[in-house]
Every structure is written in structure tokens, then in C-alpha cells.
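Entry 12.
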Amino acid sequence: MSGETIKIWIFTIEKLTQSFNYGYDNEEIKNDYDFIREKLVETGFESLTGKDGKWIQARTKGPGHGSTSRAFYARKELVEKIFELAN
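Predicted 3D structure (C-alpha cells):
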């Protein structure tokens, strides 16, 4: 992951947590990001799994099985919370 990609992701997480008042969940979302990023840096790309993170996760992206690229995804519970707060 390039430094520019990480900067964009940090900006996105900060904007997400500033845009909605999640209360204590703001810190949990940031902690998910920090945990996944640290795991990537310390143990490598292959160590990332969809089980990491309470609110966000790193999952394979792209069609089909055997994909080697990863993307950050909001878990269903976070998406539901965003829609609740938007209404």
C-alpha cells in the first residue's frame, strides 16, 4: 500500500467519524483502521483477513476466488448505523 493510499484512507476515516456522531464508536472505527494497518506493516499482506476489525475490515476485492488484492470495507453494522444517523 502506497503512502498516498494510506493518507487518503486516514482522511476518509477522519471525515467519516467527524461527519456522524458515533460517540464511543468513533474511536473503535479508528482503532480498527490502526489495527489493520499495523498488522499489514508488521506481518504482511497475506496476514489480513475478513475477521479483523469490529466496524471495518480488509477483504479481498475483485471477482472470483484467489484474488490477492485487498480493500477496506465497512461492515454491515457500520453501514446500518450510517443510514440510521442520516435519516
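Annotation: Residues 3-86 form one domain. The chain has a mean pLDDT of 74.
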